[in-house]
Amino acid sequence: MSPFDDPRLTAMGLIAEVHAGLSARMNPVFQAAGLSWIDFETLIRLSRSPEQRLRMTDLATQTGLSTSGVTRVVDRLERESLVARMACPTDRRASYAVLTDAGRERLSDVLPRHLADIDDCYTTLLDDDERATFLSALRKMRDVVRPGATAGAAAERECTTPA
């Protein structure tokens, strides 16, 4: 067998093709709502986190952005009132990004179309067992390539006063 026919290359090619196709399908939905993919990713991660907030460092780790990159995204979302910053009075080094009511509303506007796209491209294509196996495989791969993807998801929250 030629090294060019290695099934590992096929697997990685399929992953890249699916990612590109999903991005092309979903980006227009986000853009119509005035969001980029990373804006949506940031808002959805905050919405699914305890108290709908994350430490900025955990948000950077979860999104795969640098600390300066996540700061720029949060700055932009804050200008649109979709996210607020909250300082932690017990740890001056800690800063949180918090989903606002406007951020929840924007997500609520985007989610019906986004979920319909997910159904079209994923949910309706696989049966229950296939979806469970697929999710398990994705989590195993994610834990290797992005071990911090769930950073701060279950962390204790001692700060409650918005800055």
From TrEMBL:
Q: Where does the HTH marR-type domain lie? A: 8-143
Task: Please name the SMART domains in this protein's record.
Answer: HTH_MARR
Q: Provide a Gene Ontology MF annotation, just one.
A: DNA-binding transcription factor activity
The family database entries (InterPro entries) matched by this protein are listed as:
HTH_MarR-typ (IPR000835), MarR/SlyA-like (IPR039422), WH-like_DNA-bd_sf (IPR036388), WH_DNA-bd_sf (IPR036390)
Record's keyword annotation contains Nucleotide-binding: no
Alphabetical UniProt keywords: DNA-binding
Name this polypeptide is given: DNA-binding MarR family transcriptional regulator
Which organism does this sequence originate in? Nonomuraea endophytica
Highest classification ranks of the organism: Bacteria, Bacillati, Actinomycetota, Actinomycetes, Streptosporangiales
